[in-house]
Amino acid sequence: MLLVLCVDLDDDLGRKTDVSTPVVGRDAVRDAAVSLATADAEDSDLNVLFEGVNIYDRIDPNETVAVAAITGTEGSDVAANRAVGEELDAVLDGLSTDGDARALLVTDGAQDESVVPVVRSRVQIDGVRRVVVRQAQDLESMYYTIKQVIADPETRGTVLIPLGIVLLIYPLSVLANALNFPGDVFGVASGLFGLYLIARGLGLEQRLDEAVDQLQSALYAGRVTLITSLVAGLLGIVGVVIGVNELAPPPTELDVFVVGRRLAAVVNAAVVWIAAAGIVSSSGRVVDGYLRGTFEWRHLNAPFYIVAIAGAIHAASGWITGSATQNYLFVMVTAGLMLGLASTFAFAVADARSREEAS
What we know:
InterPro entries: DUF373. This is DUF373 family protein. There is one protein chain. This protein is of the alpha/beta class. The protein contains 13 helices and five strands. The longest helix is centred in the C-terminal third of the chain and has 38 residues, at 255-292. The N and C termini lie far apart (86 Å).
C-alpha cells in the first residue's frame, strides 16, 4: 500500500482553519486544501495538499493507495516532530496496511523534510516530493515581491532610505564642486548615513519621535521648564567657554574650539529665520484651534516661548563668536526667561477664568 503523506510541520492547516488533523482520504484532503486557500491564499501548504490529491489521482488504479495530511505544531521543532509521529501513528492505525505500507512525502521545503527520520521509523519511504510554486522561479514573482516590499511602510523605510542616501552622495559631491562648496561632501554624506544606520540599529527613531512629541506638548501646554532648562543649558555652555578662556595660553588653535565657533556662527545666522518660521507655524495652529473650537489660552504660549528661546540662543551663539557682548547675553537671557514666565502666568490665569465662565 502506498501512502501519500502531505506534511505541514508548523500546523498552518490547524491554526488557520477549523479542520481537525490528521486528514485521511482524497475528498477530505481536497476539502482541507480549499478551506486553507479560503483562509490564506498565499500559504504554500495548500499547494502541498493539492499536490497530494494530484499524486493520488495519477497513481495506477491497480495499486492500493491512500492520501493523508498530517501536521506538527508551531514553535519547537522537537514538539512538532513528536506531533507528526503521533498523527502518523493514528493514520496507520486507521488503515489496513498489513505491514507493507510505503510512504511518499509531499512537502513545501527543507523544514518540513526534517520529519523524514520520524516517518522512516514507522514506515518505509519511497520518495520525497517538494512542491515549488512555479511563479517563484521567474521574473514575475520578483516584480510582485519588490512591489510588496515597497508597499510595506516598515520595509520601505528600512530599505529605500539607506539606498537613497547612498545614491545621493555622488550628485551632492558634483553639486558641491560646481558651487565651490568648502568641505568634504563625501565625508558629511557618509557621516549622515552612518548616524542613520546607528539610529536604526539602536531603535532611536521611536525615541526621537517621542522627544519631538514631548517638545511640542511642552511648547503648546505652557510648561515653563522648557525655557528654564534651555537657559540652564546655555548658562552651562557659557560657563565652560568662560572657564576655557581663562586658560593660559588660550587654546584658540584647537580644532574643537574652531569647530564650535563655526557651529555657533551657523546657529547665530539661522536662528532668527527658524524662529520666524516657528512663530508663523504656531500662530497658524492657534488660529486653526480657534476655528475648530478647541482653542485654549495656554496655546498662545508657543509664539512667546519661541521668541524667548530664539533670543537666548541668538545671544549665546553671538557671544561665543564674539559678535555680542556679555551684557547683551545677560539681558537677552533674562528677558527671555521673564517673557516665558510672564506669558505662562498670564495665559494660565486667562485659561482658568474662561473655564470658570464656561461652567
